[in-house]
Amino acid sequence: MNITVMKTLLWRETWEHRGLIWAPLITAAVIVLTALLSTSFTGSVQINVDGKEQALFATLATDLSHQRQLFAVWLGALVIPQMIVAMIVLVFYVLDSLYNERKDRSILFWKSMPVSDAETVGSKLATALLLVPLWVWLVSMIASLVVFVIVSVKLAGTPLAPLATFHLGTWLVLQLTMLQNVLIAALWYAPVAVYLLLMSVYAKRSPFLWAVLPPVLLVIFEEVAFNTSVIAGFIANRLFGFFRELDLHISSDDGDTSASVIQQIARSYEQLGTLDMLAKPDLWFGVAVAVIGFFVVVRLRRWRDDA
């Protein structure tokens, strides 16, 4: 594969679909604006301890280990809304990517260029699975620093001021962990992206309906015919299984103590990374399916030049 050609194709994707660049920036701006307008210590991680706040924050103010953990969980959680928005945008991008070039007949121009079908499809897959997620990671890294500065200023001079301490080492480890998560997410969602590309290259119209109706009809058929939900569970696991590994919500019931909340902070800190997913057969089965599906999409694009 020609690296120069691939760079040009990736540039083409971002130039033609500028929403891929702007969506993470707008989401980050909303998060920063929310931090500016907020009058209390709230964010993606909410801590509700019902009357035991003083004991909890007194412990965190003196316990540097758990203070670093809360720092990492709080900033790490800021990435989640940006990931969700980016995924929504990417679904529509992938569905339209191969369909629109047939609809506006631009596929004839691109097929006249010295660019193979594999390179074209690969550039769209790389944009969805690597380029945009890496851009989200970079934007979220900068946004987290801005939000931290805002919160630090607001907490200055209050009993919560020790919680606004910047832990450089923890922050660097967090960014490496988030980068690791981006790469693992690319593997996990590869079959989903290839499936959407398949619908994009196959559908003569309404690729969104072509992508949604088959699994919905299969789920309904299984439920009616066998009274089971295996297909629904499989789809739900592929769509939301990655985020289940990032359960960063921290809360407390009336009977909980500040110690139990600190334990939840430690548990969420341990779940910041998704490296354990590499040991799941589901992930590698999905990668194998994605590889096969990629070649099917390439072959279909070679034959389909009508809309």
What key phrases describe this protein's structure?
307 residues; 13 helices
Describe the structure.
- With 307 residues, the chain is mostly helical.
- It has one domain.
- It is built from 13 helices and no strands.
- It has helices spanning 3-16, 19-37, 53-62, 64-77, 79-103, 106-112, 117-155, 168-188, 190-202, 207-226, 230-244, 258-270, 281-303.
- Mean pLDDT is 81; it is low at 41-50.
The N- to C-terminal Cα distance equals 28 Å
Tell me the total number of β-strands: 0
Mean pLDDT: 81
Instruction: Estimate nothing, just give the exact number of structural domains.
Output: 1
Structural class: mainly alpha
Stretches with pLDDT under 50, minimum 5 residues: 41-50
> What does the largest sheet look like?
none
Tell the overall outline.
globular
SSE pattern, N- to C-terminal: HHHHHHHHHHHHH
Q: Radius of gyration in whole Å, from Cα?
A: 23 Å
> Which percent range describes the beta-strand content?
under 5%
Helix amount? over 70%
Determine the number of helices (DSSP H or I, runs of at least 4 residues).
13
